[in-house]
Structure formats: C-alpha cells, structure tokens
Amino acid sequence: MTKAIDFHKKYKGKIETKIKCPIDKKNLSLVYTPGVSEASMAIYKNPKYVRSLTNKGNLVAIVTDGSAVLGLGNIGPDAALPVMEGKAVLFKKFADVDAVPILLKTQNTKEIIDTIVNIAPTFSGINLEDISAPRCFEIEKTLMEKLDIPIFHDDQHGTAIVILAALINALRVVKKDKNVSITISGVGAAGTAIARFLNDYGFKNIVLCDSKGIISIDRKHLSSNKKDLAKIFNIKKSGNLSDALIGADVFIGVSTSNIVSAKMIKSMNKDSIVFALANPTPEIMPDKAKIGGAKVIATGRSDFPNQINNVLVFPGIFRGALDSGIKKITTKMKLAAAKALANMVKKPNQNKIIPSVFEKGLSSRIAEAIKKCK
After folding, report:
1. 275, 283 contact by CB (below 8 A)
2. Is the pLDDT of residue 93 over 70?
C-alpha cells in the first residue's frame, strides 16, 4: 500500500477549509466585525435565518468513535480519520455537501450521545460512521428522539439501501420474486439493518447467521438484538452457515473472508444470487462462486463487476434531506432511494445490476426521491 501512503503524505489529508466569498478591505467589515453582528442578531430574532445566512444548511457531521472502521475493527479515532476524510470527499464530490469529520475519544454510549447532542447546533445532519453494534442502534435511536435533524448511520442504512436496489435488479435477471429464500451472514450493524429493511420491502423468507451459526430462539446467550431478530427471522431452527445455504436463492455476506465454498454455493437453488461483501476479501471470490453455479455475483470491490458501495446513496440522501429541510430519514424515504437506484439500470444483466458511482445524475436522482417523500 505504498502508493496510498505516498498519496496521503503528498496532500497531508484530503480536505481543507475553503473561503466562499471574496475577501478584500471593503468586504472584511461585512465578513467579520462590525457587519457580522447584524447577521448574528437577525438569527437571534429569527433562528430560521441560520440556514440562509450561514453554511449550516449544507453542513453535515461525520461522527465516529473508531470502534468498527471498515474491515479494520476497533482502531480508535485517530486511525479512523483518513476514512472520515475520505467520506467527506465523497459527500463533496458527488453531492456538493460540506461534511466535517468529528472524532470522539470515547466509546461510552451515553457520552457519545451527549456529545453529539451538544454539537448538533453546528450542523443540519449527522452521519454516524463506523460505530460498532449493538451500541450503534441505541445511539441512533436516541439521537433521532432528541434531535430535529437527519440522523443516518450509513453502515446500517446506506448498506441496506444499496443491497435492496441490487437485489431488485438481480431478481429481474434470474426471473425470481420476493418469495426467494435469503441467507444473510453477519448480524452486526449492516446485517441487522439489511434483514429488517428487506423485510420492510416484502421479503419474508430470511435466515440470519453469525459466527456460531443460525440465529434462532433455541440459541443460548444471544444478545438482546439477536433475540429480537430470532423472533422475526426464525425459519430454520438450528445449524451452521452451510445448513442455511441449502436451498437458498440469495446469499448476502457482510461478515468475514473465505467462509463460503463453491460446494456451499452448489447447495443453493439454481440461478443463485451471491452478494459477498466482506472487504477487502469477500466471503467467497467471484470465480469460486461461478464454479458453484451462482448466476449473479456482487462484491464490495471496485475490481469486479457489480460493486455494492454506500457511496451510491448517502450523498444523494443528505442532498435531498438538506435541500428540503427534512428532519428524519424515514423507512419510506429509504425505500424510495433504493427504487430510484435500481431504476437507473434500465436493462439489468449479470454484470450490471447497479449503476456506477460516476453515472451522471446519480445523486440528484436519489435526492429527488427523498424530496418527494417529504
């Protein structure tokens, strides 16, 4: 990874503060004292002016405690900063949203919630990033209750939205419907959100697996989150991932590398769909999935067809929310975003079930879908 290190050294990070207005001797008195006091008093008298007189209306906080960074795990806030800067770049590049990394030197749930509540006046949206499960669920839920700006945990909902869009089109390719049997590997933030979101869309035949096997009400020592999931997704009583894949139509992996074999894929139904999304090495490499008989294959990597990546939706979601003053990102909005993303691929095929992030008009289409749900 020498190129990546050299790249970051060259630029000393990837973002900077940029002045939007002209600065000269005449304007300085408007930018700061004495003229700035007029803007402050206008906002004091009518707080709604803050969105038109400052950059708050286009400003999002990217908040992390560094506890679940990409595929790197709990590496802490400092090591998470390159990722958060990268996220800020994606916000700006694809939706012209200004985003600021906020790194928290605590992994205490209450402290995280209190900190975000206290800094929220600066921002018009909060993007929670790389916070481990199950704490992330409580953090998001509590913040949505306390704040009147969009709270969006991208690891959960961004992932789920893109997967639903990809699955809608993959099912068109294999000519199957919502009655398919789906096996999900990974019951962290992403896996939990994916299962619940697919269920919201109408998929009912879903089996969830963690590192110990199928999540079921018969399992002992389940977390409260897994107990709740077992009550909803409990088609198979027990077994491991191999058992869960027998007769399945769809595999969705958000877990760890090399845990699925070609033989396991062969046990699935004909024309199976495999989304192996562990990074950097997927649960099964595409060539092995093909040997197993998979018809449509997606990964999280850019060097294979059908890259499933959150960047396809989160910039557009925030663009739409900020432009229309939306206070909550609802399930209806997320479903609309997934459908809009799927509809950008007019004729899906094995090698294209999802658009490229560089496809013209992508973020604006997602933004418009969000605005229509207001």
Report:
1. no
2. yes
Strands (E), 204-353: 206-210, 213-214, 250-253, 272-276, 294-299
| DSSP state letter for 279 | S
The per-residue pLDDT for 235 is: 67
158: tokens are 């961004």
Q: What DSSP string runs through 152-172?
A: EEHHHHHHHHHHHHHHHHHHH
d(CA 94, CA 91): 6
Nearest Cα residue to 253 out of 197, 303, 185, 172: 185
C-alpha 311/C-alpha 321 separation (Å) is 16
Instruction: Give me the mean pLDDT over the 177-198 stretch.
Output: 96
Q: What are the strands of the beta sheet with 59-64, ordered from one edge?
A: 98-103, 59-64, 125-128, 151-153
Tell me the DSSP string of 5-37.
HHHHHHHTSS------S--STTTHHHHSTTTHH
d(CA 126, CA 83): 16
Can you give the pLDDT at residue 96? 96
Burial call 23-57: b when 16+ CB within 10 Å, e when fewer: eeeeeeeeeeeeeeeebeeebeeeeeebbebeebb
All structural domains of the chain, each given as residue ranges with its CATH number in brackets, are 2-20+55-149 (3.40.50.10380), 156-374 (3.40.50.720)
Which residues are known to be catalytic?
32, 87
Any idea which residue has 């790197």 for tokens? 72
- Measured distance CA(257)–CA(248) in Å, rounded: 20
Residue type, 141: K
Q: Are strands 213-214 and 125-128 parallel, antiparallel or unpaired?
A: unpaired
Q: Tell how strand 182-185 and strand 59-64 pair up.
A: unpaired
3-state secondary structure of 275: strand
Q: Tell me, yes or no, if the pTM score tops 0.90.
A: yes
Which distant-in-sequence residues (6+ apart) come within 8 Å of 289 by Cβ?
Answer: 260, 262, 265, 274, 276, 297
Q: What share of the chain is helix, strand, coil (3-state, %, to 5)?
A: 45, 15, 40
Instruction: Give yes or no for a contact between 91 and 117, defined as CB atoms under 8 angstroms apart.
Output: no
CA 157 to chain centre: 5
